[in-house]
Specification:
Elements (H helix, E strand, L loop, with lengths): L3 H11 L6 E3 L4 E8 L1 E3 L10 E4 L11 H5 L7 E5 L2 H10 L1 E5 L5 E9 L7 H7 L10 H10 L1 H8 L6 E6 L18 E3 L10 E7 L5 E10 L8 E8 L1 H9 L2 E8 L2
Parallel strand pairs: 2-12, 3-6, 9-11
Antiparallel strand pairs: 1-13, 2-13, 4-5, 6-7, 7-8, 9-12, 10-11, 10-13
Helix pairs in contact: 5-6
Length: about 260
């Protein structure tokens, strides 16, 4: 998929910054994320059988993903969706907007996790020889799920981390871990031990398709997979944004800008 023009347009609108700065001596891995918009049912059906969970009613520690899947643990379901991979990716992204058959909409944001270790699905696929580290992206994972859903869903269960959601006002959605609203091409998730939350950060290098990248964004989010020299750039909501986000995995130069 060729998407140089829209990305370049957004980059030019935001632009770089000539402010005094403190560049990092090393490059960072740049990935991207987006918020899914999914069809949902308020009750389980034959088609809509995968729950999006709210906080368990039991005390901590909360159970693993495998325990929930095996029926050994439970939590109230906020809604039910059709595709287990979509539910899994909603947890990874931390936000999802649901569209119901009656025309109503509900916006969900993560409220907590079960505080278990996070294991990357992409890493498991590469380590198992099911995908190449040079080409794996969201599109590859979706195709693998279509071809062999049992394989992908069994690997998903190896990620013990579970994310729990709550419904929020849609004008406050998608919500970052700091409580701020995520803005496309202006918000990033970081490891706060490396880049302090609230920092203005300039990213320069290339997009996945080789076109120039020069974006200034604010660090307002964190994520279980965002550790060390890695930055996750929020690209927006919906299918197109998810496809763009899934293609991003390249090294960039990082500069912390003064306030």
């Amino acid at each position: 998929m060729h998407w140089s023009l829209p990305i370049l347009t957004l980059g030019l609108l935001i632009g770089g910054c000539s402010c005094p700065s403190a560049p990092f001596p090393k490059t960072f891995l740049l990935t991207a994320y987006a918020a899914p918009i999914l069809e949902a049912s308020p009750v389980p059906t034959a088609e809509f059988a995968t729950p999006l969970r709210s906080l368990p009613l039991t005390a901590k520690p909360y159970a693993t993903r495998g325990a929930f899947a095996a029926g050994k643990a439970s939590s109230p379901a906020l809604a039910w969706i059709a595709n287990p991979l979509d539910a899994y990716l909603a947890e990874v992204n931390g936000s999802v907007r649901l569209e119901f058959p009656n025309g109503s909409t509900t916006c969900l944001a993560w409220i907590a996790t079960n505080e278990r270790p996070y294991t990357s699905l992409g890493k498991l696929l590469v380590e198992g020889g099911h995908a190449s580290p040079l080409t794996i992206d969201l599109g590859v994972i979706r195709q693998l799920h279509e071809d062999n859903p049992a394989l992908i869903e069994s690997l998903m269960l190896l990620n013990d981390r579970v994310v729990f959601f709550e419904a929020i006002e849609c004008h406050l959605w998608p919500r970052a871990s700091t409580g701020e609203v995520l803005r496309p091409m202006e918000s990033i998730a970081v490891d706060p031990a490396v880049i302090p939350l609230g920092s203005r950060v300039r990213l320069t290098g290339e997009w996945a398709d080789g076109t120039p990248l020069d974006v200034t964004a604010v660090a307002i989010d964190i994520g279980g997979a965002i550790q060390g020299a890695r930055i996750d750039l929020y690209l927006g909501a919906g299918t197109d944004a998810l496809e763009l986000a899934g293609a991003q995995r390249q090294t960039v130069n990082v500069t912390i800008l003064n306030p």
